[in-house]
Every structure is written in structure tokens, then in C-alpha cells.
Design goal:
Number of strands: 6
Helix content: 10-25%
Radius of gyration: 13 Å
Structural class: alpha+beta
Largest sheet: 4 strands, mixed
CATH topology: Glutaredoxin
Strand order of the largest sheet: 2-1-3-4
Shape: globular
Strand content: 15-25%
Order of helices and strands: EHEHEEEEH
């Protein structure tokens, strides 16, 4: 399973996401994490970069929503504690299926941490 952390220099939250992804990788030997620095607005538009940090699971943005913009900007995540600059460790665990649960989380088409409309 390939996880890509997309970020840009100056983002104060990408290192938090990186540390949490390292924890996921240590728990799941089949997970590989790579980092990709997005350097220009043009690259952000070309790659569909939804802000920093962005986490791709097998090439798919694990937390993309219908209103996520594209560009060099900081990204916010809805967490149980409120808005934050990176997903929680538990949200990342939900977003990254382990070998025993292929089809869970993002692979099943559900955005991790998403809730049903009221």
C-alpha cells in the first residue's frame, strides 16, 4: 500500500502528518510512505493538490471532499476535537486499510471521518 504525503514548504502541519504516517507505517508493514513537495501553483493545479498536508492512499486523496479547492494553501481537517491542520492518528488508521481489511475506509469509497447529513 502506497501513501504519499503532499506538502509545500512553509506549511506548519505537514510534519505532524508525517509523524502520524510514520506511526501507521510502523504498525502496518505493507505500508510505504513517500513525501512529495509541491513547489508551484501550476504543479498544484496539475496534480489536483488540495492543500498541505494532503494524504494520498494508492494515488487517491483520502480526505477529499466535494468542496476541496486546489492550490498552495494550508488544509484543514474536521477532527473530533474541531478543525485541525492534520488528521488525527485514528482518522489516518481508518483511511489506510490494513492487509486484513482491504475494502475498508477509502477503498470502499467512504471519506474517513465523514458523517451522514442530518
Amino acid at each position: 500500500m502506497e501513501i504519499t504525503l503532499l506538502y509545500f514548504d512553509g506549511c506548519p502541519n505537514w510534519e505532524i502528518a508525517d509523524q502520524r504516517l510514520a506511526q501507521i507505517a510502523s504498525e502496518r508493514p505493507s505500508v510505504t510512505v513517500t513525501r512529495h513537495r509541491v513547489e508551484t501553483t501550476e504543479e498544484a493545479e496539475r496534480t489536483g493538490f488540495h492543500g498541505s498536508p494532503s494524504i494520498l492512499v494508492n494515488g487517491v486523496d483520502a480526505f477529499a471532499g466535494p468542496v476541496a479547492g486546489v492550490g498552495l494553501a494550508c488544509r484543514l481537517y474536521a477532527t473530533p476535537e474541531g478543525l485541525a491542520g492534520a488528521p488525527t492518528l485514528e482518522q489516518l488508521r481508518e483511511a489506510v486499510p490494513d492487509a486484513g481489511h482491504i475494502g475498508y475506509g477509502i477503498a470502499a469509497g467512504a471519506a474517513p471521518g465523514a458523517t451522514e447529513p442530518s
